Amino acid sequence: MCVVAAVLAVLVFDEHYRFFDMVIYHDAIRWWTHGGDLYDYVAPVRGQLGFTYPPFAAFALMPVASVSAATAGWLNAAGSVLALAVVLAVLTAPLAARLGRSRPAVLAVAVPLALATEPVRQTLGLGQVNLWLFALIVVDLVVLSRRGSRWTGVGVGIATAIKLTPGLFIVYLLVTRQWRAAGTACATVAALTVGGFLLAPAESVRYFGDLMWQPGRVGAAEALTNQALSGLLARLHAPSGWWLVVSLLVLAIGLHRARQAFRAGDELTALTLTGLTANLVSPMSWTHHLVFLPVAVLLLTTRAVRLRDPLSAVVALSAYALSVVSPIWFAPGGVLVENAYTLMLIVLVVALPAQHTAERIASAITSTATARSRSRSASASDSPVASATTASPSYRE
Description:
397 residues, 0% strand, disordered C terminus
């Protein structure tokens, strides 16, 4: 099923990408394993693009070099859809309970809807690894954390060792005083990074001592697909110093709201706020990085159903429509169109509502009562007595 979903998503939405990023990973790692310098590889495409991640990521991706780039792309797409399905199975549980539906039924709707969004379809079409990292973070900080596992933090650590941006989740663990998980994440990052240094010392020194500090190496800040604050400010031709000031302000707001949501008992909203904040303050955030955007839509939808809140429903529908239509591709269309995702991320970081523990308990009780009532009604309708009673004209009246 995941293979079919991956094929349809890539063919329908992003055939023109042809696993563009995966081809670069594949060829760069092959170049490296045949004696070349990992960071000297330049793909024969526009923009002088090469491998942009830490050496540990190259080791993690090394299996892709053993097959063709196309095969690697399809295998990555199938695995990414499976990872997405696992995450959605976790995140849609409250909505399924509220609607009185089974998880598989809700999942059968949620997965295709998510596949249609810009972050997911671009991840699949380009051959990116965002959904793998997304799954690592959610399973780590939702599933393992709720179980009190001593391994909580490992997933975040692995994700951070592959790409640097997930490191903000370590900061989130610190500001929410989840000390053990934060320590585990830091230890994991350190162990994997040191391992990279031991196995590839020259590449590690070059990456962490030089290349990591060159964000322009991965693309132009003013590119429309860069929907971080850096892209917004570059397109507005703002002074270069503004980026640091605005980013620090947004970082403070995002982490403050994430901490408030966590204290209210709503860790899903807290994680989503952290993910959206990371997208905004990162030096570069391409649209395929915005994988927490569909989660924000899901949270708003759940709130709309639970509270019968029309405002949440309108915002959820608007955010989803924007994620599917992706108006930035219709530029030049003015500031609002060119920066549609950036502006939406800012609004969500500032205003995404958290659900308090008391509300969640009341919602769970209501959902359970509703489910039991439906179960009793179904059982009663199957009994002979109920059938005879239902057939009575006086009962119908």
